[in-house]
Amino acid sequence: MRDNDQRSPNVAVNxxxxxxxxxxxxxxxxxxxxxxxDVTSTQNVTLExxxxxxxxxxxxxxxxxxxxxxxx
Length: 72
Known about the structure:
Blueprint: E1 11-17, E2 20-27, E3 45-51
Antiparallel strand pairs: 1-2, 1-3
């Protein structure tokens, strides 16, 4: 979402690992968020962006960095 669109409602970014919700992070304009999950035995990662308002348009959520990192 654009940093300067302070009128946009929050968006819940839900992360599913193999079809099971593993995290939900509220995202709002101008505030970067980070999620760290163990995906060692995971075969499928799904991201969902759900608007918190049924009556107001939610701006898009952009992902500018995604990485799978091996941590022993």
